[in-house]
Design brief:
The chain is an all-alpha fold. It has 10 helices and no strands.
């Protein structure tokens, strides 16, 4: 007898658009479930956050936190990390994927922060994106988390959640970002990034979504959701 194999959901097509009437209840239920919509990266300053986000590209927050737990007590300012140099920095972040390129970018960013921004993390997109290793997603995270700006950083989790639930569908992250910004109620916009990323990380997972434990099951438009009710 052949074994039944469940449909893998990591690359499922976008769902039908979630009705407008369900968008606010969707976020209200996430807010009831996720009491602390904050980043899981550890940091104590805007600069520490910036470096952690640069390091987190294609890496887990856990691996970044392990590295920065050793790095930040030794060097947590642009001047101190620049003094370490690339090789010195690499010795702290070698557990993180792409650490060679990331070390080079962080050193360049530290130099630019010192020379162009008086060692202060900029609070606007143009200046942030001028820094090495800082693209649109990283800038959005910093603007939202450090400065409380209503930006939406779309990572793999949010891209998946947006498409699977029908909240905001799109073929690329820019389209999903645009659609999310248009649909998210204004009073949820500041915390929406963290609601969605945490929901995607722990409940609406790539291959085995935990639909049985999903607080937004009723609003979600994923057509195969009933197949995962036991999870």
């Amino acid at each position: 007898m052949s074994k039944t194999v469940k449909h893998k959901t990591a690359d499922t097509p976008p769902s039908r658009r979630m009705p407008n009437r369900d968008v606010r209840p969707f976020f209200e239920k996430l807010a009831e479930t996720i009491k602390e919509p904050v980043t899981e990266l550890n940091y104590d300053s805007n600069f520490e956050l910036l470096v952690a986000v640069i390091l987190s590209a294609q890496a887990t927050d856990v691996s970044v936190n392990i590295a920065t737990q050793q790095l930040y007590p030794v060097a947590n300012t642009p001047e101190a990390i620049l003094a370490l140099g690339e090789d010195g920095l690499k010795s702290y972040i070698k557990n993180i994927g792409l650490y060679n390129a990331k070390a080079k970018n962080v050193i360049k960013t530290c130099r630019d922060l010192i020379e162009k921004f008086d060692s202060t993390v900029p609070d606007n997109r143009k200046d942030l994106e001028s820094l090495a290793g800082v693209g649109r997603k990283t800038a959005n995270v910093v603007l939202n988390t450090a400065f409380g700006q209503p930006t939406m950083a779309v990572d793999t989790h949010i891209f998946r959640v947006g498409n699977r639930t029908g909240l905001a569908t799109g073929k690329n992250v820019l389209i999903v970002e645009k659609n999310l910004v248009e649909r998210i109620p204004e009073d949820f916009m500041i915390d929406a990034h963290h609601y969605l990323i945490l929901h995607g990380r722990y409940t609406c997972q790539a291959r085995t979504p935990k639909c049985g434990a999903c607080p937004v099951y009723d609003e979600c438009m994923f057509k195969d959701k009933s197949s995962f009710l036991e999870l």
